[in-house]
Amino acid sequence: MADGTMMHLAADLSFAHANGSWRGKGSWTGYPYYGRAEMYEDIARIVERGCFDMVFFGDAAETPHDSDGDFSEAVRYGVNWPKLDMMPTVVAMSRVTRHLGFGITMSTTYHHPFHVARLFASLDHITEGRIAWNAVTSAYRNEARCWGHDDIMAHEARYARAHEHIRATKALWDSVDPDAVVMDPRTGVFADPTKVRHVDFSGEHFRIQGPLPVLPGPQHSPPIIQAGQSPAGLALGAEFADYQFAANGTLATMREHRAAMDEALVAAGRKDRDVGMLWSIRVEVLDSPDDLARRDREYLDMQPPGAPIKNMSALFGVDLSRYPPDTLLGEIVEDVRSAHTHWGYLADAVRSAGADTPLLEYAEQRLLRGAAEAVGTPEQIADRMEELHEATGRNGGFILSRLTQVPGTLRRFVDEVVPVLQRRGLLRTEYSGATLRDHLLT
Hints:
Blueprint lengths: L7 E5 L25 H12 L4 E4 L14 H6 L9 H9 L5 E7 L5 H14 L4 E6 L4 H6 L8 H19 L7 E4 L4 E3 L8 E3 L4 E3 L14 E3 L4 H10 L2 E4 L4 H17 L8 E10 L5 H12 L4 H10 L16 H6 L4 H11 L5 H10 L3 E5 L1 H14 L4 E5 L7 H16 L12 H6 L1
Parallel strand pairs: 1-2, 1-13, 2-3, 3-4, 4-9, 9-10, 10-11, 11-12, 11-13
Antiparallel strand pairs: 5-6, 7-8
Helix pairs in contact: 1-3, 4-6, 6-7, 7-8, 10-13, 14-15
């Protein structure tokens, strides 16, 4: 999808209000309760000023529980909780911007293709072509229970269902031609029925008879975003995705991931530039050389008790608190693999940090960074981002995650780093095209 070689940017706002971040000095200052739209509207204005492609909202519709089924600690300290459905907020953000796109999550495991197709086609109209679907396979145990299941679906079954789900969704998007509407007041004809096609989708998981009762939006098919580091995740992305999010800890593993995606694209009959990558990155403009250590300490101090291990436990679906803190990463591999959750992330952790890294040490570092890092002066941050962009084929860009202060971190990045990237010709200075798909292509 990334036909150009300029850098694309997204801002990850998935849990900007949770996990202690709300306590930061530059977070939520002067704004009401996080569920109100005011702050998100201001964030949208800030990010659009920085010529970002989109803001992104990941989601897992659940309340984290500990190993005994108790959710009180998650609620008490805001551990990935609470979680609004951000779609209404995205509409509010779209009304105060003209170009910024929005990535919203819906599950191929729990949502029906007809609902997904209808909702995203509708949002494509309302946002004037600035919506993207983050298609996830949902690997959190309590989320499965919220949707009425006893446990998560096995890994292979989730991905088989996802392939079928996306094929059905795209068939519904294609069931109405863009020029179907006639609206001839003389004859009273509203639409040409020859440009609306019946859909009779019958698969192992879904039976759907269309057509979709929504006219195609400006993008016709909203871009599909996907994150998958396992072989099944890469295969899903290679077949359907326009962009992938990836959280890799080192340049070496970023290159490995890009190479694996390129191989999967060839197997799927697509070209290597058909899928761009948005690499997860932590950015921090520092005031002095020792500023990072101070900020790291402050951020860890803001976290709930035991947060590093609890966050990893939620991600991997394994109660890691039962392991001694000095347990090595390599010693939990089989437990995580058998949990059918996010095995690809642990595989990358083992490759990046090493199998002999102590569990607690890695958990704390993952809480702080989680992936690549660009810190220092604005010029040093631009240097690092340029290095990573060049080394991974200039095919995509970055999603700013681990935002320690919101909107403070974003505002400082836009004010101080974006001008450096623009002077170097790495980032657009103005938007071209009319839709998110247009922006992602340039």
